[in-house]
Specification:
By secondary structure, the protein is α+β, with helices and mostly antiparallel strands. Helices cover 23% and strands 37% of the residues. Strands 3-2-1-4-5 form a five-stranded mixed beta sheet, with helices on one face.
């Protein structure tokens, strides 16, 4: 998505995803465009361990966007997409979809 995400809502989403999927959520990672943050934020997680750190600054010619990848078993992409859309910052909220890739087995 090109809409900025609210970090409090994003943290609540990750808490909910960890609760919902537990050990079935093997890995998640990506880049987040967050409200009131100049650098891109780098997300890395394994099951219930989450790390969000500041990355490089967005360059003027680069599109600012969020791209996340989730790898696990029996993950619900519709739920993940809907919950991430709910993380959009109110001042810049749009109906755009957040880019999410789901990797699943069995």
């Amino acid at each position: 998505s090109t809409a900025a995400l609210d970090l409090d809502r994003l943290n609540a989403f990750f808490d909910a995803a960890q609760q919902r999927y537990g050990v079935r959520l093997w890995r998640y990672k990506g880049v987040v465009y967050a409200q009131n943050q100049r650098p891109r934020l780098v997300v890395q997680g394994v099951q219930n361990l989450l790390q969000i750190t500041g990355g490089t600054m967005w360059r003027a010619f680069e599109p600012t966007r969020t791209m996340l990848v989730f790898i696990g078993q029996a993950l619900d992409p519709v739920w993940i997409q809907r919950e991430l859309q709910g993380c959009q910052a109110q001042s810049g909220a749009t109906s755009e979809a957040t880019a999410v890739r789901i990797g699943a087995t069995g």
